[in-house]
Amino acid sequence: xxxxxxxxxxxxxxxxxxxxxxxxxxxxxxxxxxxxxxxxxxxxxxxxxxxxxxxxxxxxxxxxxxxxxxxxxxxxxxxxxxxxxxxxxxxxxxxxxxxxxxxxxxxxxxxxxxxxxxxxxxxxxxxxxxxxxxxxxxxxxxxxxxxxxxxxxxxxxxxxxxxxxxxxxxxxxxxxxxxxxxxxxxxxxxxxxxxxxxxxxxxxxxxxxxxxxxxxxxxxxxxxxxx
Length: 227
Description:
This protein is mostly helical. The chain has eight helices and no strands.
């Protein structure tokens, strides 16, 4: 619902949202022009560290590791969430066809349409997959730090895209919201899948599959659940 509302406002070219977008783009572009070293750092973060290709490779490697561990359901969830998020983002971009910011003396360029931000969406889905899969392997005292690193990274991705002038503020918000919606939907489906196999419900703090720490995270036949 939040993403749908934002999409309606973007399509309607709602004046208050347009003013926020233009103001953020203008102010951050001025900073980027005045501080080239800062802008160079943003480029490295955006084009390498937090690039969608980098994050998708990380998820792909995680999926292969899950297959090696014979955690079939969790591997399927990770692959579907990452792939589904990417395809959904591309589809929405093609439907909306929003132009990217056009700034005088741009510091960066990006191809394609603007809404939603693919970087922001990929960061949301990828860090969610990494966290929800790997949390059971992390000592409880370190889990808050993991959440913090993931949160800062997702926010940082969005900031770099606006600061480099390749996305509007609302593009980034849209990427975050749509990515979160994909994770919630696939996570709900995974929980239903767990319930069908007789496993107890889990919380976000535990990760999607706490049994991942077991020697055999998915017994071949857990047996039907009888009420």
